[in-house]
C-alpha cells in the first residue's frame, strides 16, 4: 500500500511485522537490523525492540518511551499474510487453510503488474475471455457464491481445441477468493491419486502497482496430512507442482499484456453472460473504506 514493512522471526520462530523506521532517529530496521533472541535491534544505535514493539534496551542507559507500530500477521500453508485496514482496525476475518494439513507451496513465481489488485482477481470471474485469449473451454459447475469476505465457485476447464481431446483432459477446478488479494484453486486428479493447489496472491504496492505471486503445491488426494508422503511421492508432488505452475504462468503472461495496458471501467457495459462480474463488483465493495 505504498509503504515498507519489516518482517522477522523471533528466536522461537514466531513471525512479526512492524513499521520500518526506528522511532529514535529514523533508521530503516530492514537495512541491517538484526534479531537477537526475542528482540529486533536497530543497526544505527542498537536500540532493541521487544515483540510487542516497545523499546526495551539501549547500549547506554534506560530505554526511552518508544514503540514500533506492529502489524497483524498470520501464517497459512507456508504463506505470511499481513492485515491492512486504512484506519488501523483489527482483523475481522482470516484466510482459510486448505482442508488437507501440511500443504505448502513447492514452486513459486512472481511479477510486477501495472494494475490494481481488483483487476487481477476480477479476471477469474470473466469467463468470456478464457476461450478467446487462452483457448480454454469453460463450463460453470457451481456459480459464484459469496459468504462475507469469501467467494467460491467451481468450473470445468479444458482445451478449447482440438475437440477430440476435450473429454480426456477436462478438469474440475474449485476456486476460493478471500478478499482482493487471495485466490486458491484446488484441482483433484483422481486418476493420478493427486490433488493440486494453485495460489495467486496480489499485494498492492502503489497506485496501479501490484506485486503478484503465483505458487503451486501437490499432495496425495486420499491423505488428510500431506507431511507423511514418502520420499518418492514427494518428488512426484514437486515435479507435478512445477508443471502446474508452468501452465498457470503461461496463462498469466497472456493476461499481463491486457492488465498492463487496460483501464478500470467503474461502470462497465456488461453483456448478458457477464452476471458473475456484476456479482463480483458488488462483493468487492466491502473491502473499501467509505465513501
TrEMBL record:
The keyword DNA damage does not apply. Keywords: 2Fe-2S, Iron, Iron-sulfur, Lipid degradation, Lipid metabolism, Metal-binding, Oxidoreductase, Steroid metabolism. One of its GO terms (molecular function) is oxidoreductase activity, acting on paired donors, with incorporation or reduction of molecular oxygen. InterPro entries: Cholesterol_7-desaturase, KshA-like_C, Rieske_2Fe-2S, Rieske_2Fe-2S_sf. One of its GO terms (cellular component) is cytoplasm. Residues 1-82 form the Rieske domain. GO terms for biological process: cholesterol metabolic process; lipid catabolic process. It comes from the Bacteria. Its cofactor is Fe cation. Homotrimer. The two-component system 3-ketosteroid-9-alpha-monooxygenase is composed of an oxygenase component KshA and a reductase component KshB. This is Rieske-type oxygenase. It comes from Streptomyces alanosinicus.
Amino acid at each position: 500500500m505504498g509503504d515498507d514493512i519489516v518482517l522477522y522471526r523471533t528466536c522461537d520462530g514466531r513471525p512479526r511485522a512492524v513499521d520500518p523506521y526506528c522511532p529514535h532517529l529514523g533508521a530503516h530496521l530492514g537495512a541491517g537490523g538484526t534479531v537477537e533472541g526475542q528482540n529486533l535491534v536497530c543497526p544505527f544505535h542498537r536500540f532493541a525492540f521487544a515483540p510487542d514493539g516497545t523499546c526495551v534496551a539501549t547500549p547506554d542507559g534506560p530505554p526511552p518511551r518508544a514503540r514500533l507500530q506492529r502489524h497483524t500477521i498470520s501464517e497459512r500453508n507456508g504463506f505470511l499474510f499481513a492485515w491492512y485496514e486504512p484506519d488501523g482496525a483489527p482483523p475481522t476475518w482470516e484466510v482459510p487453510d486448505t482442508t488437507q494439513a501440511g500443504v505448502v507451496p513447492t514452486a513459486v513465481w512472481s511479477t510486477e503488474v501495472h494494475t490494481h489488485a481488483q483487476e487481477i482477481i476480477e479476471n477469474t470471474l470473466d469467463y468470456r475471455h478464457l476461450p478467446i485469449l487462452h483457448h480454454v473451454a469453460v463450463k460453470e459447475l457451481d456459480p459464484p457464491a459469496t459468504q462475507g469476505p469469501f467467494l467460491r465457485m467451481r468450473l470445468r476447464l479444458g482445451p478449447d481445441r482440438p475437440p477430440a481431446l476435450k473429454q480426456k483432459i477436462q478438469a474440475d477446478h474449485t476456486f476460493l477468493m478471500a478478499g482482493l488479494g487471495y485466490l486458491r484453486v484446488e484441482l483433484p486428479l483422481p486418476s493420478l491419486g493427486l490433488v493440486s493447489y494453485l495460489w495467486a496472491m496480489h499485494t498492492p504496492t502503489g497506485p496501479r502497482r501490484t506485486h503478484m505471486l503465483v505458487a503451486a503445491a501437490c499432495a496425495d488426494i486420499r491423505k488428510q496430512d500431506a507431511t507423511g508422503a514418502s520420499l518418492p511421492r514427494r518428488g512426484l508432488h514437486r515435479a507435478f507442482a512445477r508443471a502446474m505452475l508452468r501452465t498457470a504462468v503461461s496463462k498469466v503472461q497472456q493476461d499481463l499484456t491486457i492488465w498492463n495496458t487496460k483501464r478500470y471501467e467503474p461502470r462497465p457495459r456488461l453483456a448478458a453472460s457477464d452476471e458473475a462480474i456484476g456479482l463480483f463488483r458488488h462483493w468487492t465493495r466491502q473491502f473499501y473504506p467509505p465513501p
